[in-house]
Amino acid sequence: MKRIILIAVWVMLGGFGCQLPVPESVSSTQRVSTPFELSREKTIGGLTSYDDYSSPSSISGSKKTRYASLEGGEPEADPPEGEEGHPNRKVIYTGKFTVLSPNIEDSIDKLIEYVSSLKGHLSLRRDSMIVCRVPAKSFQEVVKALPRYGQLLKKEIQASDVTRNYFDLELRINTAEKALERLVELLKKAEKVEDILKIEKEIHRLTESLERMKGEMRHLQDQIALSTLTIEFRTNAPPPRHHRHRTQSPFPWIRRVGIQSLLEEF
Amino acid sequence: MRKYQIQKSWGCIQKVLLGVMSVFWFSGCLTIDPPKHFLIVQEELDQIKALSSDEARFWVREFKDANQGDLAFWSEAIQEEFVKNRGYLSISEEKIQDGTGREGTLLTFESTLNGVPHRYLFAMFVIPGWSANTIRVAEYLAPVEIYEKYEVSIEQSIRSLR
Questions:
Q1: Would the CB atoms of A244 and B84 count as touching at under 8 Å?
Q2: Considering the entire predicted model, what is its pTM?
Q3: Cα A92 to chain center, whole Å?
Q4: Where are the domains of chain B?
Q5: In A, which residues are within 8 Å of B120 by CB distance?
Q6: CB B105 within 8 A of CB B95
Q7: Nearest-CA residue of chain A relative to B116?
Q8: What is d(CA A72, CA A45) in angstroms, rounded to the nearest whole number?
Q9: Beta strand pairing status for B89-97 and B103-113?
Q10: β-bridge partners, A157
């Protein structure tokens, strides 16, 4: 039973970056079942490029290597979406804009309506600033449409390539899941109460970190799927003045002159 | 002899009628020297529309005023409406004369359209009539940098208004 515990502890530590010497008493057939190596077999399809490292934290291969290895691996349950020509690339698009508009309220309302039509949504609205989330594929479309809502004063677009983080995290999740499965199996075989307690403690710790990683993954997936646009509206229209509440001039001919009629009826 | 007198009278009546018709016809017809660099895109008895190549707009038109308000009254009413009701920024107010020497008011305003500051000129003349006055209005609208380019020619054109 001590062997089982030792293997379990070694499995845990080995799976998260600590390099412990393999106990001499463990046979070579048992050693094959380290969690990371198992996950590697599944995820990357036994490619030699990953043979040199023994823990997920040591993954630091170049993009090229990683893409090659991922393409060579088994198909994933949820195939990654990305830019055209780079099916596996994971990019988070964010944009910050300043728009000059004579009528801020009207511009904001119209922009929100437009974003909704593209299956996006308003994430935050504070005074004359809004944060919108739009599907990544519609990001450029919205950027191009912004001048419709006023004069574009400032434009800042950022594309963060998170491919490495994404697949590292995915790999760590797979590894942790495998390790968890193995611990559960060990738990079934354990006989002593002391061993059971130790394994359960380890399962608890591993479950917590797995949930945390899954949360990170969900956040990352959300950031990739929906681009974030922060738009601050400004106005240079004359400041509002206090005046009597009136909607129309009482003189019909005066209602027919002015800037609006010159634009609409000309 | 009698026949000759009747013919002579009829000729006079014809001339008088023609004169009266001409007076009515020409009194209701706008004439103006179009501003330089503007193309007249529509010309009717009571309105003329002209555009520059960069889309500055110039529009002269007439309105009937059965209440027969005078120039001072309508100048105040326009200021009230544009500044207090529509929020235009008043830039200047001057007097101007048209091609017949009639005095009018020349007002300029500023407002922002689609984030771009625009300037708007409004000139007005009141022509007294028997049953109703005629209010003759000239409007010119352009973004500020374009406005200044044609300002002089627009004012010259308004001074030629008859």
A1: yes
A2: 0.42
A3: 7
A4: 1-30, 31-159
A5: 258-259, 262
A6: yes
A7: A151
A8: 7
A9: antiparallel
A10: A95
Return all residues near B51 (Cβ < 8 A) that are at least 6 apart. Answer: B38, B39, B41, B57, B58
Q: For residue A121, list its beta bridge partners.
A: A133
What does the block give as tokens for B47?
């309105």
Q: Using the beta-carbon criterion (under 8 Å), do B87 and A251 form an inter-chain contact?
A: no
- In one-letter notation, the amino acid at residue A147 is P
In chain A, what are the domain boundaries?
Answer: 2-82+163-215, 91-161+226-234
pLDDT tens for B122-148 read: 999 999 999 999 999 999 999 988 999
Fold type of domain B31-159: Protein Transport Mog1p; Chain A (3.40.1000)
How far is Cα of residue A98 from the mean position of the Cα atoms in its chain?
25
- Count of pairs with CB atoms under 8 A, one residue in A, one in B: 74
Cβ(A186)–Cβ(A144) under 8 Å?
Answer: no
Average pLDDT, 10 consecutive residues per value, chain A (266 residues): 54 44 36 34 32 33 32 33 62 93 87 93 90 94 91 91 94 95 92 92 94 95 94 76 66 92 88
Contacts of B70 in chain A (CB under 8 A): none
A238, A251, A262 member nearest B77 (Cβ):
A251
What chain B residue is nearest to A146 in terms of C-alpha separation?
Answer: B114
